[in-house]
Amino acid sequence: MIHGVIVSSTPELRIALPDGRDLAVTATAEQVARASGLREVSAMVVMSPSPRLIWIRQKGADVPVPPAGERDAHALRKWSELLRRLAQ
């Protein structure tokens, strides 16, 4: 996870990092639109030769986390077929 300040949101998303560097990331149009309304951010970025934004939110914003039972049920629904095949 990275933390920084939005520097520019067109045509690519640029985030100023606390160490003084700028990080340019590719993002979807929806992510760029969301980021344009933010200033200080927390973001998840896939670091590769072409860094890609996974998600972004206002720094310090609380994110609701579902209870463990709901998370487990979701994972089982999503992966049940693969798990069934692997068990064979």
TrEMBL record:
<protein>
    <submittedName>
        <fullName>Uncharacterized protein</fullName>
    </submittedName>
</protein>
